[in-house]
Amino acid sequence: MNAERSIDIVIVGAGFAGMYALYKMRRLGFDVQVYEAGGGVGGTWYWNRYPGARCDVNSLEYSYQFSDDLQQEWNWSEKYSSQPEILDYANHVADRFDLRDSIQFNTRIASLQFDESSKLWLGETEQGEYFFAHYCIMATGCLSKHNIPDFKGLENYSGELLHTGQWPHGEVNFSGKSVGIIGTGSSAIQSIPIIAQQARKLTVFQRTASFSIPAHNAAMDKAYEREIKANYAAFREQNAQRYAALNNKPNPASALEMSESDRETIYEQRWLEGGLPFLASFNDLGINATANATAADFVHRKIKQIVTDPKVAAMLCPETVMGCKRLCVDTNYYATFNQDNVELVDVNASAIESITKTGLKTTNTEYKFDSLILATGFDAMTGALLSIDIKGPSNQTLKDHWRDGPTNFLGLSINGFPNLFMITGPGSPSVLANMIVAIEQHVDFIADLLVSMRGANQMRVEASLEAELSWVKTVNRIADQTLYPRGCKSWYSGSNIPGKPRVFMPYLGYPSYVDKCNKIAAEGYRGFDFA
Ligand code: NAP
């Protein structure tokens, strides 16, 4: 095999992780090449263009902090940014820091094989281009491999078939159309109210109801923006000390240690404030089922107040532990079911039998749709990594190594796969933290590690087997102290994908994770083997 190039660092993916890794590694003097499957930067925000796509983290927090000039000069127009604005920001960052020259777009990596003779990774793109890389940084995203369930007859459907995670770039107009949407996770919950305004008829197929808290999105409060920008570093530092690295104003009180009316007042305040901070209403919602049930009960009552048909309201009330599936944040989701043109179908009561040429057949009814939308989520956290054929020095594949779940050290490094790093991989806080904060922390950790290796003339690093096994236990031990691993079937634990190992993948608790990383670095990267 003749590799066309030999590169210090190959980065796979030009989303927020890949862009920052490129910026950082290039500044440290490494020769870097990024390969990106999409036609532009932005990762998840490049692909997820469905109507209503919006971040559920406050704009002033969901942004890079590595450059104070950047965070001072960029102005977000809303409290929660829309997908187009986040994509504009990603493009601005790419231009401002001259990143594009080092990114090859429309290029998907097919395989990475560690070549023992050269001690380099040999990579192949789907177009058949080869390269050698000393290090590989997998910035492939946690929610980037979209999931198309194995519906019988899907290939026969002749109408417009869409997936929220692979939305077309041009305008999709549902005016006057009959539309079906399968799924009621975050993507569906954001898009349903907007599609329902356009479509003649919208039919929503729900398997599991989701908890959703109103966003109360608004134009950016300029006084608040000025206040944050005046003390941005301190604001970031304070958020980094919080469980999910978010300014969610955690209430240190237990939900069970106060009167019902005091508890109600706090839930009411959080509901009015809106968004993810609802889950921080009390300190025990994630660990005590009785406490969690008080929050669930509050939201159930809200749903029943909003939705006028009691049968529909009952169907929309989730029976799972709140927060066990990612909490959704919406604008008018529940109220949309009061519209005459919107129908909710419970697929547990009438299962989807098949997709037909013209629509969809359940055990009860046949539906005809001009457009059918799959809001069916992702093969999360491991899907994108495992769709690349990754082989270590002994020819062991990552698929085999992860047969029973994604074992690794710190969510960063995998035993048997030297010089290969993950950004926000399984086993790191990633999706249960502010993603951009977690990304910067990971990239900085890897950068420090590579600089230290360069200084010590070390060429090879990987997680030791011992460190990997111990880390897996740590991640599980922490998760097992919460209600999340067993409170529902969720993509956090792989249970949305048939046959996927059931392992709770994120590390819970950003600050304790960072402490561990800092300690490990200070102790000469304990847990990593060098050569
Ligand atoms: P998701 O949360 O995994 O939801 C997928 C939906 O499809 C679920 O309702 C699921 O039902 C349903 N589904 C899957 N297979 C099905 C089948 N065979 N039959 C019937 N229903 C089926 O995916 P998502 O909505 O795309 O969101 C994924 C994640 O992306 C979110 O949790 C969030 O982290 C992120 N996201 C964030 C934002 C934001 O920042 N605001 C917006 C969108 C997405 P079950 O629940 O029964 O499996």
TrEMBL record:
Is Phosphoprotein among the key words of this record? no
Question: InterPro entries, from UniProt?
Answer: FAD-binding_Monooxygenases, FAD/NAD-bd_sf
Q: Which GO terms describe its molecular function?
A: monooxygenase activity
Task: Give start-end of the signal peptide.
Answer: none
Q: Name one Pfam family in it.
A: Pyr_redox_3
Which key words tag this protein in UniProt? FAD, Flavoprotein, Monooxygenase, NADP, Oxidoreductase
Q: In its keyword annotation, does this UniProt entry include NADP?
A: yes
Q: Identify which cofactors the protein needs according to its UniProt entry.
A: FAD
Which domain of life, per UniProt? Bacteria
Q: Which family does it belong to?
A: Belongs to the FAD-binding monooxygenase family.
Q: What is the protein name stated in its UniProt record?
A: Cyclohexanone monooxygenase
- Organism field: OM182 bacterium MED-G28
